[in-house]
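Hi there. Long-time user, first ticket. I'm pasting a complex I've been working with (about 719 residues overall). I'd like to know whether the download I got is complete or cut off, because the file seemed smaller than I expected. Thanks.
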Amino acid sequence: MRRLRALEPLAWVGPAIVLIAVVVIWPVIEMVRSSFLEISRFGVVRGWAGFANYDELFAEKDFADIMVRSVIWVVAVVVLTVVVSLALAQLFNQRFPLRKVARWALIAPWAASVLMTAIIFKWMLDPEVGVINQIRLKLGLIDAMGGAAADQLGNASTAMPWLVFVAVFVSVPFTTYALLAGLATIPADVYEAAKMDGAGRFRTYWSITLPLLRPALTVAALINIMNVFNSFPIIWAMTHGQPGYSTATSTIFMYILKGSDIGESAAMSVINFGMVIVLTVIFLKVSRWNKEVA
Amino acid sequence: MNMKLVGGAALGLATVLALSSCGSGGSGGSGGDSQAAGDGTVTLKMVAADYGDGPGKPNSGETFWKGVVDQFQAANPNIKVDVQVINWNDIDKQVATMIQNGQAPDILQTGDYSGFVQDGLLHKVDEVLSPNVSGDLLQKFADFGKVDGTAYGIPFVSSARALFYNKDLFSKAGVAEPPKTWDELKAAAQKLKDAGVTQPFGLPLGQEEAQAESFLWMLGNGGGYKDASGKWTIDSPQNVETFTYLKGLVDAGLTTPNPGTKDRKTVWEDFGAGKVGMVNGGPMSIPIFDAAGLENYGIVPIPGKSGPLDTTLGVMDWIMAFNQNGHAAEIKKFFDFFYTGDAAQKISDTYKLLPVTNGGIEKLSGDEKLKPFLDALPNASFYPFQDQAWPAVSQAVKQTIGGAVEDDPAAVLGELQKTAESAAS
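Hi, the file is complete. Here it is re-exported in full:
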């Protein structure tokens, strides 16, 4: 009887463990296994491949560029998102008329499908008829519609900033709300104490708000890092990673590889998975997430 | 206390059961059995590409196939056909995933069959098609359905390409005749540009169908993906010359900007909107131009380096039967129904695709707009799609050949040649 009672907790956590095993752990094992198999383009397993898939992957001409670009992509999008969201959260934490409406409006880019948002931006950037280019034409930034100058998504150096912009645009709402929630947990008496000690606005923000916001900030940034690294629809809908592979991140590259070599694509997934873990660990180290606020 | 324990255990067990039943449904090795219902009805699972403008449009693949299937099911009440329509960009990857998971369809209609032959996944054509139907197929086309002398792929529809030019823009720019040679093409494009046309020549070398546009240009200089002996020749001197010429057009601003990022659909829509002077297109682009309201255009053979092409790109799509589920008899009924009924005719009417049977071509011979294409069909050139390496080559071409008109043509084509040779080995 006593032994049975000792097993009781297992019955309660059991379903969750099973769920995690089936939904999280099993796919990871399957992914790693696939990366060591030779699989035909049409999905038929032809046998064990050893490290051949990895060798092929590392030998891809564009592999190094793509990995570097992926890291830049993550850093750029997450940093910009956090900076913008910090400011927005501060703003939305103030009382002002119609604050409720403004807060609701912020949800829109979050609620809309990311793919839809990306396609809409692609249309707005269309060189022949896109509204952004019509505005640029009116402002005299370009001479005419339709030419290379109006085709910002056709060139990596102008396409990348737009891709980052759209990624920030869709990430900001969630991040802002996470930070708003964090701001709400900071007790008012800390601010009063700071006021009595004669701290200015900047000093208060730097020494009180930011440190107390750190738990919310850490979680928000971490979720963003993983989301952005694995982000697929924005780049795929807007550029297909083209011209060439020059706007492709490793997630896009993985998808393209899937069309010609599933094993190599799985190898790319494994590398991707490793990258996310590495980026996360680095981030947690840097942000000293488990240290108490001094 | 005990009750709690039992309840918890039961919940856990139920979860495991629910999950494992999902699992077996998903891995679907048993697909064949589970589809045969008790009353002897067989369900054929079919996957087809979408020739229309996507879900919800009146010409969507769903609508088309529903019409065919309803007719078929009325005549064959004990066979159900379950059609899943997938757009061209995703169909190959989704089918690969199905096969990897052991959920191969019974019937697949898409752009290639040859990749499935090597793995022994397909029925031979004579197992699923009556002799009187296969005898009516255009011989040259049916021959391409064979691997090592045995037919596996059944030609489904075909198309050919020609040059479309906007007559209004041509007269506005003072170009009297559509170009026949590359020099004339460049001169005409320059005049169009001077007259304010933003894209004198529409050049889609982006992801969607770069392999087609590239091939049409290669043909214009006696080049191609392979030579007559079957060797890959992507970086042949002729092809390098071709892409150097194209790069000249791009550099002079006479084409779609950044061709390597443009899909044909976008460029055809731009042509329909009157923004493009000339563009290579096929019968399937006519509905797009019509929908955009463009009426005054001409169709001529594609210009080559020193004269118009005496060949063109013939593309055929395929329909094939998978042998995993053992439904050969039912598939045969469906195929025979499809090719002998008016369904093939309906495809030509709806999508302006060309038929693959002698009977079908005869029925269409009265159509003025289709005539240039029907005439070109007998002498068409085809992709080397029976080569095992072609899928990998095509994939690489789609992604990177745009670089050949922006950077160094020889280097980009050389890289593609390497892809072809390493995929072939």
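A couple of notes from our side: Chain A has twelve helices and two strands. Chain A touches chain B through 45 residues (CB under 8 Å).
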